[in-house]
Glycosyltransferase family 25 protein (Herbaspirillum huttiense subsp. nephrolepidis), 252 residues
Amino acid sequence: MAIHDIPTVVISLVESQDRRRYITDQFERIGMPFRFFDAERFQQYPANYDQATRWRVHGNHMNLSEVGCYDSHYRIWEQLVKSGDEMWCVLEDDVEIGDGFGATVQAIAAAPFPFGIMRLCDFGGQDSWQVGVLSNGSIVKDHRKQPFGTQGYVIHRDAARILVQQARTILYAVDDLINRTWEHGVRTLSVTPSVLVHRNDLMGTTIGRVKAKRTLWQKLKREFYMGRDSLNRRLNAWQRRRDARQQAGSRS
């Protein structure tokens, strides 16, 4: 699969002209085609946002920018499923494209092992182990605690289909949803060295999270759910690491 066979989609608000110029200039420099996905700025919560469960679990609500971000990624997944393409590269518009971006995307397309999502930036990941090596020398890793954000990733159509089916209801920020691998079962990996840099230092942020003020009872409930998620995360990571060791042993 050649690099131009993987469509690249950049999520961007129509009015964010500075961001659009910034990302367009970068793609022109590397000679790689892409298209914009016009993100929607929500003015109210949509019907598929589960306010009751979100409040019970987190003691706060997602802000409308987070909901809009979730919606953009979800609709791109829907488009990928309908397109019949094998995989797409999805970027947000506040990234700096690093050296080796094109070669890494091309190598991901030819990866000799299955994956659902391959992050192009591994910032924030913890307790990782090597899964494989791509043809360009990039190291592919899995993590007990997955990297932050959804700045850029390659997603397989099968993974998009799973997420479209299981994530119709909005409950978590989109990066949190992707990282809940013990629930949806999508194999989520990352490449190193990273080929993207999140440049919210230049572009600012369109998300604007505000620290929630919680009652003691809300804090206790949140700690309970976070502890449960942490346990599930660790158990699922242990299983994945065990499977990786067994596969490595069978090849040796």
